């Protein structure tokens, strides 16, 4: 990739990211307002699940709008001005947003129970606590695990689970004979591919 095309890519990424995240944040904020201001809505499990999903989406969208302030300055990203600590903070919140995936599963299950099996609101309310517990524990658990394992690094357009340097060879690749190296040269984020699938892509595909 030439210097000019690389600059064009960075500018396009910078603009498109904002263009996608700003409407998402506004939409989530509208749902948050609609649910939180209505006593009738707050009494319904379906609305409370929507509120949780929207809160997670809102915080993540805002974080991505200002992603340049979190990505380390030496990452080469356009307008990057953060450091490793801010990168860890962004990575943690982005990973916690996987709780939203499980909340979506809970919402889908709620629809099945109500529409297909005729569950009443009080019956759904009795199991609602498990919807919240599973979603939040998974989000916080995987976010904390990735932080302890030093997995949060610049990942193209934000800080998330990634190897550092980005083209490093992981321990798993070394053990599999995919490299001439005798040990990993990743200074951070070793075996990031495995953690991405275990902490995000696996649950995402499972929810589909």
Largest sheet: 2 strands, antiparallel
List the quaternary state of the chains: single chain
Assign the structural class, choosing from mainly alpha, mainly beta, alpha/beta, alpha+beta, or little secondary structure.
mainly alpha
Strand content: under 5%
Q: Overall mean pLDDT score?
A: 93
| Total beta strands | 2
Number of helices: 8
Widest beta sheet: strand line-up: 1-2
Cα-atom Rg, whole angstroms? 20 Å
Q: Which stretches are poorly predicted, pLDDT < 50 over at least 5 residues? A: none
What is the approximate shape?
globular
Topology:
Elements: H1 3-36, H2 39-42, H3 45-65, H4 84-96, H5 99-116, H6 121-148, E1 152-154, E2 159-161, H7 171-175, H8 192-207
Antiparallel strand pairs: 1-2
Helix pairs in contact: 1-3, 3-4, 3-5, 4-6, 5-6
Highlighted features:
globular, mainly alpha, 208 residues, single chain, 8 helices
Please give a structural write-up.
With 208 residues, this protein is an all-alpha fold. The protein has eight helices and two strands. The chain has a two-stranded antiparallel ribbon with strand order 1-2. Strand 1 and strand 2 (159-161) form a beta hairpin. Helix 1 (3-36) runs antiparallel to helix 3 (45-65). The two termini are 35 Å apart. The model has no long low-confidence stretch (mean pLDDT 93).
In short, what is this structure?
The chain is mostly helical. Helix content is 67%, strand content 3%.
């Amino acid at each position: 990739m030439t210097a000019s095309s690389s600059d064009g890519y960075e500018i396009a990424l910078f603009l498109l990211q904002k263009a996608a995240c700003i409407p998402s944040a506004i939409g989530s904020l509208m749902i948050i307002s609609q649910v939180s201001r209505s006593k009738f809505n707050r009494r319904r499990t379906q609305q409370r699940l929507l509120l949780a999903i929207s809160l997670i989406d809102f915080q993540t969208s805002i974080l991505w709008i200002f992603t340049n302030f979190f990505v380390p300055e030496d990452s080469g990203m356009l307008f990057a001005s953060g450091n490793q600590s801010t990168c860890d903070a962004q990575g943690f919140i982005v990973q916690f947003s996987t709780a939203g995936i499980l909340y979506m599963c809970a919402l889908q299950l709620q629809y099945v129970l109500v529409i297909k099996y005729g569950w009443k609101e009080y019956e759904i309310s009795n199991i609602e606590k498990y919807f919240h517990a599973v979603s939040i524990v998974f989000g916080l658990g995987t976010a904390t695990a990735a932080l302890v394992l030093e997995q949060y690094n610049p990942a193209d357009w934000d800080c998330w689970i990634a190897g550092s340097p980005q083209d490093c060879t992981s321990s798993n690749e070394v053990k599999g004979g995919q490299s001439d190296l005798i040990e990993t040269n990743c200074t951070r984020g070793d075996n990031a591919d495995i953690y991405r699938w275990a902490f995000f892509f696996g649950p995402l595909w499972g929810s589909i």
